[in-house]
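User: Hi! I'm working on a homework problem where we have to compare a predicted structure to a textbook description. Could you give me the structure for the chain below?
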Amino acid sequence: MRTDGRRVEVYRFAHFDSKQKVLYVYNNAHQIYRLDGSNITLIDNGMENVLFLKNPLGEPFEYNHDSIQEGLFKKVMVDSINFTKGESAPLQPEEQRRLHECYFYSLFFPELLPAKPIEVLVGDKGSGKSVSQRKRGKLLYGERFNLKPIATDREDAFIATITNNHLASFDNVDSKIKWLNDHLASASTGEEISRRKLYTTNEEINYPVNCFITLNTRTPQFKRPDVVDRALILRTETIELKKSEGEIYQEVAEKRNALWSELLEKLNLVVATIQSNQEAFTTQHRMADWAKLAWNIAKAEKKEAEFLSTLDRLNRAQSDFLLEDDSLFTCLLVWLENPNNIGKEVASGTLYNNLQFTATQGDLDFAFKNSKTFGRRLKQLFPAICEALKDKFLITQTVGKTNNLTTYKFDKLSKEKVV
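Assistant: Happy to help. Predicted structure tokens:
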């Protein structure tokens, strides 16, 4: 007996058809919820040329409009996180919750995100970072979901995780791992990872990466500029009054269908917004695709103005994260305290000598052995330095046309210009 089949792409977890503007979500029980902006209908897996691969850890869920408790999703999954507050924090708690919630919804629209943001939860022990990640995973996949560690000697295990999952959640990423920045950058931009095929001499195999990554850390060591540019930096504080983890996860398990039902209806509003929104969206943000999607997500709840304001401050949060404890930036701030250095154009090599002297005089760390490595790092950090100091200084970088010499100038802003 001979049968003919048709070739279709296989998806994990969720698929957004950009042409029809329809969202498909797999229920892990051989059926799919189809969200068209108006209705949520249940169809068999494989219908409409949409075929999902079953997650072996995934547990089924059921949509039921009558089970919805309005506001339950936000209360259980978002509001319970103790985000950092304070005058010096670039992002206030409500803004961080907004970003966290937008990231959650964006997991369902991978086709709109060729470059995917990396969610980074930063905070001390006991601030609920791991709990919030586990809670999300247990809602999406079921009770067996758990976080994964990243071991310095387990690069292949990390690659296997990010190439075989829709969402990869990592715990306690505090060690310096030499290969981590490269793979985080590749994963966020959707690049393929190449490896030599086992048991061959010179045969290469490529692994596509279409994975969202979320991780938590107390002492982040992955501060390469191209990685930080694609990170949502969310800072948490220690929780004083705590529920037990068992109680938290039990609540998610008991209310899972109600949470999923509300989530699907919220996602359907996002689909309807994407379908009807004719406004052009432009941004200079480094994660433009995600910013556009998140803008539509916020627009679905009529909070687009608040989101745009939050997006502006996200740049500052990224810059602060990148420059935090950076020896170059620390020495530069001390050097700028001297009025004689303001408004003076200095070559990169001269600035290196000045900051090296500043470090020696102030007993500060300065992690550069020569002007070349200093110059490369300064060029990498320049956008972040401009963002961090934009309220105080107009910073100019000039590259000579003939000698390719890079110079820098720091002009103090007048009080009238400071916002």
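For your comparison, note the following. The chain is about 40% helix and 15% strand. The chain has a mean pLDDT of 90. Good luck with the assignment!
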